[in-house]
Amino acid sequence: MSGERVLMCGNEALAEAAIRAGCDAYFGYPITPQNEVAAYMSKRMPEEGRVFVQSESELAAISMVFGASAVGKRAMTSSSSPGISLMQEGISYLAGAELPAVVVNVMRGGPGLGNIAPSQSDYFQATRGGGHGDYRTIVFGPSTVQELVDYMALAFDLADQYQMTVLVLADGILGQMMEPIVFEKRPGRELPPKDWALTGANGREQRIVRSLWLAEGKLEEQNRKLQAKYEQICRNEVICEEYKLEDAEVVIVAYGVAARIARSAVNRARDEGMPVGLIRPITLWPFPTEQISKAADEFRLFLTVEMSAGQMVEDVKLAVAGKAPVLLHGRCGGGVPSVDEILDIIKELSLSGKR
Amino acid sequence: MQTVFKRTPTLKDCPTHYCPGCGHGIAHRLVAEAIDELGIRQRTIGIAPVGCAVLLYDYIDVDCIEVAHGRAPAVATGMKRTSPDKIIFSYQGDGDLASIGAAEILHAGHRGERLTVIFVNNAVYGMTGGQMAPTTMLNQVTATSPKGRTAAEQGYPLQVSEIMALLPGVIYVERTALDGATGVRKTKKAIKHAFELQIEGAPGLALVEVLSPCPTYWRMSPAKAMEWIKTEMAKVFPLGRLKG
Q1: Do A201 and B41 lie within an 8 Å CB cutoff?
Q2: Looking at the domain that runs over B24-243, which CATH code has it been given?
Q3: In the predicted model, is pLDDT for residue A1 greater than 70?
Q4: pLDDT tens, B126-146?
């Protein structure tokens, strides 16, 4: 099916994309709404002569990823919000040990068991590291099944390039929704050799994968090294889309599925003569701070639309840095904003002439 | 002069951080000797636990990884499934394996992962200051059982090897004790066999439980601690081959 259009749901499409990106091993534990990933992998990975293991828990799944990654293989897991919370232990260890991994979170409503409706309420957890310690993960927030497919390959490349976890943040809608997609073979990045992988000390010195640094100053040094890497990522890896920003008075900032709805609202607003544009972060970390900061010099008002009680809005405010008002339209607990809701807010803003 | 004993190459020539009379030093040597005698140093990967043996890699000269508390059997699964030609062993204490990692060891055994597990049982949490472990003996005084463990309050000592031996995916379970020269020799034999099974590709997990002295947190002399293994621990944790 390479190059031709196929109809697939997001969960299966991302699984196929991971296989095509050279994923050697998938480990996972059942949780809705991402069960199609493991089901697909359980069939396809053995066909490719690769590894599929259903783990006893999410703690174990991420630890299996840790092990497979340490021996130099491309490994991934997927889960949904409560399961991703359990994986934070392993994600912190991956950060400490500087091991590559790809983790997909098909977000659902929380906190607690929450519900199985789509949500974006794991934004804080995803973009702030999530577990203990000073670390980050690269976070993608795709908004279509095609993007989900396209960014899987980049996720594996970035994980290997920077030796860290790349998180793909989808939601229940994206995971379940079927869309026509094309699996395109794109050239991958040139990657450094895995000269840290545990392959047996054959004709070389022992290698150690560790995150414990007890000697005085050593852990701070290791943390500085991580931070330098993160700064490099902030400079080089930001991806964001700007849509109809010309002469916009109101700029909506939204990602993932919420951005699709926001895009429709922008189109309708434009049809009705209201100058509205959209900034869509595709990498949520690194966040497009510069792009939004620049926009804040030109445009008068920002409206963040997200499926949470207001999480990304904090990054938008940090980027805008007081140069313009930043409003929030957040739906939470599985609520999904409608185009009409967003249009109503825009209309009210235009009428009131807020600045 | 005739050399009757020498350090095996895979055991590094350095002092350890272990307390006087601790069993880890002996257990490390036995693992290193088994690796050298079987000629597998170049393809062996060791997994260090969280606990006193977290610095395993400072003493055993093979590729090593340090993992989250209790997760060694899951990490080992990720390694062995993707690199079946490598010899993977985990080295875990009783807090690590029998408490926080109970699910991971049970399910690695349940799945029949082809791994070698060295389970060092010294009936306390050593690194954190001698707290009660699942394997702590009844009446044993620890930092968190100051009046001694009672069955009513804290339950009975957990017999992990007996549980593991019930699983079809576990092919070999033996409990030995570092309580003297004979015990050390038996332990060496058991550890070596647990590696041999993996080398042969035997279909399942091999586990050796090693009863090991912790004079510091048992508040005993090293000699008394070895005696205590014989007279007390071995009653609750019977020695011998449980399976395979």
Answers
A1: yes
A2: 3.40.50.970
A3: no
A4: 999 999 999 999 999 999 999
